[in-house]
């Protein structure tokens, strides 16, 4: 998990530099490096070993040296020195959504607030209103920010959980003594938030598995070690449990420990009606073992279709499985292109050609390069004049490539009235228009809904990006009437996006399912800002599968010709 560790250190440096009023370009360099490292699909230690750090956008000699130092020592002297130049505790306050460097510094200077408990006490005593510039609404936002921070700390994101699990399964899988291995629990069900990690193993030498498991480098503490079960806590404070089970029970154990609880209860009740006993050791009839080596044989024994792990939430899947009417869920291989990717023209780190070649190598047949529109200056939004130059570059790239097409796109801002940031005469030139809200998140539910509905009604808007605006651990979804948005999307042939970026995963699974029920089409996009982030498509697929989506529900499973025809309004 060095990628996350290094990105967090760089973000911390950026925050301290901002508090100190350092050069904004220097601050942005650390923030950009953090974002790019966090989005890498490959372990950064591979880049270090192979001398490839310069391949990561935004990483020059200075930052590369810092990365190597962190990887080798687990800390950075530069950061330790920086910390001594500011009051202790300010960094803790910066973790709170709505508290930026200036506010944190003000709270410390005026009220000597140096940590979250101090801040909570000051809010209870109504002291913040006396500070110049801090209004009642700001205080409420800070209070909500503390709640968001606490909730985010209870569980890890799906991306973090997948990476943490691979640190363990990757090592154990190489042991000749390990015959079968799988993650279980909410990670296997691909929930967007995961509390801890469960790993199941089949091996005739459990002591070898337990010894290796408890000595994996990521382990900080061994919480328990037994003959067939051990529990550890990682250096990143993640609990990982490992169980060794018999080969004949692997399927039953995998089903039991995958869950969910309600799914298991209902399945056991179904087994009882058939005169069977079902538990983590297998399926039994009159005390005799009759199934359990695989999940498939248990489902077959119960006269039902196999239920994919992502669906096991007791929301109707068992009833449909008994009728063999479960949907055919979308898979990563169904995706033919990404419709929301940024290039160097706005705030991305790669050229259009680099983006195109990465997508082509990944098996896609098209990509929409959707850089920001003119109003979003902070993200390098493109002026009308710059759009012409970008289009010329796309045309040149398309002439070079065979069997692949770069679509001329934009992520256009939706203003406070629901108008798009470019006039229609500019919008009609694009192949793909992705519309998104980037400001005014605290407006009323009615106004936010009107903005999205009006965007749908624009005949040149094809996709609504990250429709609820949430950022895990930073910002809750804004208040919007999604039923109204879904109705408008259906009426206007506007697709809604599942944004696969790890901090977004927006729309979520429940809203995906509701959108499908209302006949709304969806697009699964990565919102990638570096080519490595294109790998995050798999997270969007996880959300879509939990939302019961089939390939036919998602527009970027279509061929290029079918897509361009399908998005017309």
Features:
15% strand; alpha/beta; globular; Beta Polymerase, domain 2; Beta Polymerase, domain 3; 4 domains; single chain; 569 residues; 44% helix; 24 helices; DNA polymerase, domain 1
Describe this structure in words.
- The chain has 569 residues and is of the alpha/beta class.
- It is 44% helix and 15% strand.
- The chain has a 7-stranded parallel beta sheet, covered by helices on one side. A 5-stranded mixed beta sheet has the order 2-4-7-6-5, with helices on both faces. A 3-stranded antiparallel beta sheet has the order 8-9-10.
- The model has no long low-confidence stretch (mean pLDDT 92).
- It starts with a helix and ends with a helix.
- The chain folds into 4 domains: 2-154, DNA polymerase, domain 1, CATH 1.10.150; 156-245, Beta Polymerase, domain 2, CATH 3.30.460.10; 250-322, DNA polymerase, thumb domain (Beta Polymerase, domain 3, 2-Layer Sandwich); 332-566, TIM Barrel, CATH 3.20.20.
- The protein has 24 helices and 17 strands.
Q: Total number of helical segments?
A: 24
Helical content, roughly? 40-55%
CATH architecture of the largest domain: Alpha-Beta Barrel
User: Overall 3D geometry?
Assistant: globular
The overall number of domains is 4
Summarize model confidence as the mean pLDDT.
92
The low-pLDDT segments are none
Number of strands: 17
Instruction: Give the termini distance in whole angstroms.
Output: 45 Å
**Per DSSP, what share of the residues sits in E-state strands of 2 or more residues?**
5-15%
From the alpha-carbon coordinates, what is the Rg to the nearest angstrom? 25 Å
CATH superfamily of the largest domain: Metal-dependent hydrolases
| Class inferred from helices and paired strands | alpha/beta
Looking at the structure, the CATH topology of the largest domain is TIM Barrel
CATH class of the largest domain: Alpha Beta
| Main sheet: strand order | 11-12-13-14-15-16-17
Q: Give a short account of the largest sheet.
A: 7 strands, parallel
